[in-house]
Amino acid sequence: xxxxxxxxxxxxxxxxxxxxxxxxxxxxxxxxxxxxxxxxxxxxxxxxxxxxxxxxxxxxxxxxxxxxxxxxxxxxxxxxxxxxxxxxxxxxxxxxxxxxxxxxxxxxxxxxxxxxxxxxxxxx
Length: 124
Description:
The protein has about 120 residues and is mostly helical. The protein has one domain (about 5-120). The protein is about 45% helix and about 5% strand. The protein has seven helices and two strands, in the order βααβααααα. It has helices at about 10-15, 20, 65-75, 80-85, 85-95, 100-105, 115-120, and strands at about 5, 40-45. Strands 1-2 form a two-stranded antiparallel sheet. Helix 5 (about 85-95) crosses helix 6 (about 100-105). About 10% of the residues are buried.
């Protein structure tokens, strides 16, 4: 089954609404793949998971980046460099498939307001 990627408009919407949605990033379950109404926020991409995408949770200062890079590579063995640069892929993975990992890796309550303001200015 192909992986569904977020559409560009949805990725942009998530960036612009980061400050507004900050509290939602502390929720236990993913929420960004559901949007009320009939607007389609995903499309089928020519990517398929070849194996499980279970990332190792960070332990203290060790974010487990190298180990998790290998997990992602095994899950997407045919990923091209162009596909690997696609923000729609990484936004989908961080907001759906790898939600639990991201909740451990980044604590939304500690994102400085200056960072939020910069993201919002960049996407006006």
